[in-house]
Amino acid sequence: MKNLKLKSARAALDLSQQQLADKVGVSRQTINAIEKGDYNPTIKLCIAICRTLGKSLDDLFWDGEQ
User: What is the CA radius of gyration of the chain?
Assistant: First the structure.
């Protein structure tokens, strides 16, 4: 399932995938794969992304419909 919440939060801060990747220490391809739903990030990476974007785990990675 695509992670549109992550993509939206990243775009709201005017960050490219590359810029977010640089801030959390992964490749741009990893961020792209997370947004496309092709990769399940570790909790450590999830937390790093949340801190960088100023969001909670619930905001970005929890889908209340599941």
Answer: 11
Our measurement of the distance from residue 27's CA atom to the centroid of its chain's CA atoms, rounded to an integer in Å, reads 12
Joined tokens for residue 26: 């992964």
Divide the 66 residues of the chain into consecutive groups of 10 and give the mean pLDDT of each group.
Answer: 93 98 98 96 97 96 68
Q: What is the model's pTM?
A: 0.90
**Chain-centre distance for alpha carbon 31:** 6
CATH level 3 topology of 4-55 = 434 Repressor (Amino-terminal Domain) (1.10.260)
- What are the extents of the domains in the chain? 4-55
d(CA 36, CA 16): 15
d(Cα 9, Cα 13) in Å, to the nearest integer? 7
